Description:
Blueprint: E1 5-8, E2 11-14, E3 37-40, H1 59-67, E4 74-76, E5 82-85, E6 108-113, E7 122-127, E8 129-133, E9 136-147, E10 150-160, E11 165-176, E12 181-191, E13 196-206, E14 208-211, E15 214-217, E16 223-233, E17 237-246, E18 255-265, E19 269-279, E20 282-293, E21 302-303, E22 307-311, E23 315-327, E24 330-339, E25 343-355, E26 358-369, E27 381-391, E28 397-405, H2 408-414, H3 418-421, E29 425-436, E30 439-451, E31 459-472, E32 475-476, E33 483-497, E34 500-501, E35 506-516, E36 519-521, E37 524-537, E38 540-542, E39 549-551, E40 555-567, E41 571-579, E42 582-598, E43 618-633, H4 646-654, E44 679-692, H5 710-713, E45 730-736, E46 742-751, E47 756-768, E48 771-781, E49 796-806, E50 813-823, E51 828-839, E52 843-854, E53 858-869, E54 873-876
Parallel strand pairs: 2-3
Antiparallel strand pairs: 1-5, 4-5, 6-7, 7-9, 8-9, 9-10, 10-11, 11-12, 12-13, 13-16, 14-15, 16-17, 17-18, 18-19, 19-20, 21-23, 22-23, 22-53, 23-24, 24-25, 25-26, 26-27, 27-28, 28-29, 29-30, 30-31, 31-33, 32-33, 33-34, 33-35, 35-37, 36-37, 37-40, 38-39, 40-42, 41-42, 42-43, 43-44, 44-45, 45-46, ...
Amino acid sequence: MRDGGVIAADHIRIEEFPERARLMADAIRWQNGVASNILFADASAVLPCGVSSPLVPDRKLARSNMKSCRELIITATRLRHVLLLMTLVTSQLLAAQSAAPQQPASDAQTSIPATKLAPGEDVTIRAKEQEKSGAIYHLRGDVEVDFRAYHFRAAEVTYDSDTGEVQATGQVVFDGGERNEHVEASHAVYNVNTETGTFYDVVGMIGARFRGKSIILTTSNPFIFTGKVVEKQGRNRYIVHHGIITSCTLPHPKWTFDAEKVDVVIGEDAKIYHSTFRIKKVPIFYFPYAQHPVDNLGRQTGFLLPSGGQSSRKGTILGESFYWAINRSMDATIGAEYFSARGWSQHGEFRARPSDKSYIEMNYFGVLDRGAPGTGQDQGGENVRLNAELALPFGFRGVASIDYLSSFLFRLAFSETFSQAVNSEAKSVAFASKNFKGYSFDVMSSRYQNFQSTTPGDRIMIIHAPTFELSTAERRILDTRAMWSFDTAIEGVSRREPGLVTGDLVGRFDMNPRISLPMVFKGWSLRPEVALRDTFYTQQLSPTGGVGTPQDDTLNRRAVEASFELRPPAVSRIFEKELLGRKLKHTIEPRAIYRYVGGVDQFPLIIRFDGRDILSDTSEIEVGLVNRLYAKRTSQAPQPDCSPAPEQEQKKQSGDFQTSSLPGTTAVPLRCEDAGVATREVLKWEIGQKYFLNQDFGGAIVNGRRNVFTTSAEFTGIAFLTEPRRWSPIISRLRLQTSANTDLQWNLDYDTRKGRINASTVLLNYRWREIFLGGSHAFLNAPGEVFTLTNGAPTEFNQFRILLGYGHPNKRGLSAGTSVGFDANLQFLQYSSVQTTYNWDCCGFSVEYRRFSLGSVRNENQFRFAFTLANIGTFGNLRRQERLF
């Protein structure tokens, strides 16, 4: 029927279909009771057009149906056994076609076998109007053509079922493929057999699914292109003529590559020929050839975007790098920068992951310097860093962390971050270890350098090569409460500094067995422990002039150690009244420890290499008190005011957080607590002090000189012993964490004997939504305790670090931050930095001003920038790892 009609029946007998119709001779049973039986007459009979059924009571309706049988289609729904007769349909049914039910449709649908497609692959066409002449189908009105994984839509389509050619006009849309291709054109010619064709006046995207007006991205880097003519040369290849490519939304993209030709291989890349890079239609740079990724391909060999900048000491900076994807688990980057006022710098990076438990990372940075402005001093040098972890045979684990620095002058002059520039140490260590049945065996080699000044040779260098260590965790003695353990080491060590040069390899053998008897009674715990210490040296120090002179005489240090640790039961209270939706619990944990060391009567003769050599006689009592405040959430609701950016959540899960060695110079990313009831240690405050019964530490104290002993180094980290004394400074260690984004630490040492604060360090990190604040304050007042008072060495340090900002690097819109470092004692601004970033949907621009004030070596103003193109890279010299936020 032209206007459609509805016939409800349990059994339908269809005696004849229009001319050229192929009828199925078998009975079809539809699922879910759509129709119980449909019986077809002999399909080979040619009868006058008509349909007859005794189950149809309306004869007038039947006669109307007979007149329109040339345009008949049978479809069904799952409800009420309905048979819907559609208008103006040409059906060509296969005798072997499955009898699965068709979904209801407002348009005609035809399934057409294509001879050149794979067996079982048909071309399905739908349209409001269909006309057929031989193998040619003329389709009009909301035409849809489906084949394989592709979908064709247009206002009018001509389809040749023999050749597979589709000619489409009027709002042509082509969708599908493994990579979700979407092409819109004014008209097109396409072949469904060869999957080739030509589109005209094209706007296309790869990596997105279109559902009406909504778009679902199926890749993190969608590829957008336009072109006057676009050729599809196979399943995964397009050739774009006289068009543009971008990652920005159309029709007003922020940046484009206007190209004469673009060769796009889906799943790989786009080769761009004779293109002009434009920002807001303003031409910026001409590229005779360039490449753009079309999918998440990971690493691709090629030249990176060039870098550039301006510095008051380096001049104009221009650089380029080459990236080499060696194989799937190895890559390298090499490059160089030209400093118009200084010379050339070279940099390189090598990365490898031989296995899932192994990695190698090596970085090189060097400068060929023509001389500092004004002085002509050559400040060039090189710095090499290597970090590696390898799975070795026989269950050993190998780790290496190597830091080679040619000179401290080079680091001061050319390091790109303040915290690295002022770091005077270079530490290198490599070891192989194996743990088995509670035992640990290590083979280690290390080198430690501490540069005292920029003068060549003014440094301390300590080498361990090699070291063999064997130790064990505490083990029970038979079935008693007593425990035993030991730690032993056989080493070759050496030390070099101005005024002291030991042998190239000084032998040192150290053994330290221990026995303890931990006891617990009604909440009280007592742990007595006894240990023997025997250390043998092949060289000793003759204490004559300065720090002494090494002598080739052996020395055997024997010591007895004993300790008694008493911990009373902790006192606690739970507060019934809630505070900010949390229940609070306060605990007080006291302790008292007595330590005794005797037998170290040769302390002035021992050469100091590391912590094994600063053991001295002592008899002391340590008392301390730890206050803890816990807060337990009583609500299951998510934490308010906490909505981290998706990229920050991904970093949180992977552990890839940007960190800084100097607090107050880099923002801490936003963190959110898990929803639900959780307990947090909000406050921890520890105070303690030591009382020395042995005031001169067995004669080891040298008056008026900085003395470093185990007992003081482990307690405060500050060498407060310059003369005999009874009481140590009082230490206070406070940490406050009211939320996942609040962290306050304050370490204070107060000397009751001298009536002054020896040291105070405050660290603060706070973030609320997109606003972040960080800072630190370091104060030290210890005359003679850090440096011997000669050559005008400073006796007081008072320095501030402050960081304030809003946003994060990938935030849409504006983000900004500033950081300063100030020396209050010298009234001197050590460094300052201001950064701002503005991000659009597909690109972002960052700019920074920095100033370094590092004495006579470096007073530098820098202007740095970075222009980031989504899915391509960053142009400029402001590196992501050097940003404030």
